[in-house]
Amino acid sequence: MEEFLRQYGPIGIFLGAGFEGQTALIVGGLLARQHILNLWLVLACATAGSGIVDHMLFVAGRSFRTHRWVVRATQQAAFARALKFIERYPISYILAFRFIFGLRVASPIAVGVSQVPTWRFALLNILGAVIWASAFTFAGFIFGEAVHNLLGHGHHAGRWTLLAAGVIILVVAAVWAVRYLLGRRKARAAVSGPPDIA
Questions:
Q1: What confidence category does residue 161 fall into, taking pLDDT thresholds of 50, 70 and 90?
Q2: Which pTM value belongs to this model?
Q3: Hey, what's the torsion of the CAs at 94, 58, 40, 167, to 10 degrees?
Q4: Cα dist. 145→10, 44, 101, 115, 122 in Å?
Q5: pLDDT tens digits, one per residue of 22-53
Q6: Dist CA 40 CA 38 (whole Å)
Q7: Cβ neighbours of residue 42 under 8 Å, at least 6 residues apart?
Q8: Cα 100 vs. chain centroid, distance in angstroms?
Q9: DSSP codes of every residue in 88-152
């Protein structure tokens, strides 16, 4: 198991940081504390995964901002308020959007639709990715340190830390599954419309 994590853990952290969020970073920090992965490698993979994917989403928003679907979305009140906030506080928003639950994917697209210059987003995106990756990776590392100190320094401490990482992954997977199922139910309800009243 440890050999598998050493080989494929960095890839998982890269993809997890880009598409899932902070769970991959916390698990990476736990694995770094157990010396299964190098801490700096975890930070580099997390930063790269987040930075690259979010820049691609920004480019998508910038490239298709004149498309009728995007134009229609910008006319929604919530999207319009978000754009105003981005235009007014671009630095704060770009640095902070990774920490805002539910806006991870939409935010770089919204910034792409805004008037924020590409070079400014690119620089702030890198800085934001470093801050975000460091915060959650070190959170996992500190949690792993606490488990290590609580259970001692034998092999059983490492096993308990790996178990904790597994539990975190399962809980997050369950939450995502529930959210997905609820989203599909809402979508079906919206398509079918309200029931007819005789």
A1: low
A2: 0.71
A3: 90
A4: 20, 21, 26, 44, 34
A5: 888 888 888 888 888 999 999 999 999 999 99
A6: 6
A7: 10, 13, 25, 28, 29, 31, 32, 137
A8: 9
A9: HSHHHHHHHGGGSTT-TTHHHHHHHHSS--HHHHHHHHHHHHHHHHHHHHHHHHHHHHHHHHHH-
pLDDT tens, residue by residue, 78-125: 677 778 888 889 999 999 989 887 777 788 888 998 889 999 999 999
Tokens of 186: 């809402």
Q: How far apart are CA 55 and CA 125, in angstroms?
A: 7
Token pair, residue 109, equals 């697209």
Beta strands in 114-177 (DSSP E): none
Which residue has tokens 């997390």?
A: 46
Task: Please give the Cα distance from 118 to 9 (Å, whole number).
Answer: 32
Residue 176: both structure tokens together = 């995502």
